[in-house]
Write a structure and sequence with these properties.
Elements (H helix, E strand, L loop, with lengths): L6 H26 L4 E6 L9 H13 L2 E6 L7 H13 L4 E4 L4 H10 L6 E4 L9 E2 L3 H15 L5 E6 L5 H11 L8 E6 L9 H11 L4 E4 L2 H14 L4 E5 L3 H8 L3 E7 L1 H16 L16 E5 L6 H7 L5
Helix pairs in contact: 2-10, 5-6, 7-8
């Protein structure tokens, strides 16, 4: 007697066959998929949490482009020799590309010129001023915004001090040059606090404590996270009543903004710097660009924040990267 297959049985067999074929195609696709790109994100300083926003932005871009990002910190703040050794180690140790925040722009530039590395690289936050890509907010515009916010909040007859430190990084140097080359509407007198050759190896906090003790100023201006944290520590240790303004986004600067020792901060969107910086590096060297709009043609935003607006939603996301 001839068996009659039910239509349901036939349909089930067809579906199973299609699933087997689809699975085989998927497995073959995985085998042909581009390998994961290993990117080393080499920054200056030893505080990994300081770079949380940058890392999160880079990690999101890495997820989109089949890459992995490893954050590499230093044991010191501005030691170009240490950063060079890290660049050399990562370039020779299996990384496919490097994203670098230069500790010393001139020294890193000279090293890369004389001893070129053989993998793609680009810069974020601080670069070397050469042909290698740099993703950063406009430092001159940030400095101009800082000057304006001081002018809006202080009387014209104040005495202000500008901390001149960590200016071997081009980001700090550009901010400083803007302040030095701008007419001063916000102070009757502006002085520069800069360590001399005998003091350069001493802890900056101690230098700043001495300056706060010996020279009466109404306002102190810090141009980066390092100087901001150093002047905060100096003022807190001395219980000194001084108004601090600066360009920074560290958790300590945000904490003392809330406590009103820091009067106002200008900070750049480092999440966007990480995302756009890594996207451009990968798409220019490993992946076909998904559209014709170059990421780095879009300016990186920055914000001015004080005690009154620091807890607005947009500011919270960038000032408190560990709380999302």
């Amino acid at each position: 007697m001839k068996k009659v297959r039910s239509p349901i049985f036939i349909i089930a067999c067809v579906l199973v066959g299609l699933m087997i074929i689809e699975t085989a195609i998927y497995v073959q696709t995985l085998k042909k998929e581009d390998p994961i790109i290993q990117v080393s994100l080499i920054v200056y300083g030893s505080d990994a949490s300081r770079w949380e926003n940058l890392k999160q932005g880079a990690a999101l871009a890495a997820d989109d482009l089949n890459a992995e990002v490893t954050l590499i910190t230093m044991s010191g703040e501005d030691d170009a020799t240490e950063q060079i050794s890290l660049i050399r180690r990562e370039a020779q140790g299996g990384a496919d590309a490097l994203l670098i925040a230069a500790a010393d722009s001139e020294v890193i530039k000279e090293y890369l010129k004389n001893d070129p590395i053989k993998i793609p690289y680009a810069f974020v936050e601080s670069g070397t001023g050469d042909t290698a890509g740099l993703t950063s907010a406009d430092n001159a515009s940030m400095a101009e915004s800082l000057i304006k916010t001081i002018d809006d909040n202080e009387k014209d007859w104040i005495k202000a001090a500008v901390i001149v430190d960590h200016d071997r990084r081009d980001s700090v140097r550009e901010r400083l040059d803007t302040i030095l080359n701008t007419d001063v509407p916000y102070a009757e007198n502006v002085v520069l606090w800069e360590r001399n050759e005998q003091e350069v190896d001493k802890k900056a906090q101690f230098f700043l404590q001495r300056q706060l003790t010996e020279e009466a100023v109404d306002v102190v201006i810090a141009l980066d996270n390092s100087s901001m944290e150093e002047i905060i520590d100096a003022a807190v240790n001395l219980n000194k009543d001084v108004k601090i303004y600066g360009i920074a986004n560290s958790s300590k600067s945000a904490y003392y903004l809330d406590n009103r020792l820091v009067r106002s901060l200008v900070y750049q969107d480092e999440f966007s710097i990480g995302y756009i910086g890594l996207s451009d590096l990968l798409e220019n060297n490993f992946r076909k660009r998904r559209d014709h709009n170059q990421h780095n043609k879009r300016p990186i935003p920055f914000k001015v924040v004080d005690h009154n607006n620091m807890y607005e939603k947009a500011n919270q996301r960038l000032l408190f990267p560990h709380v999302r």
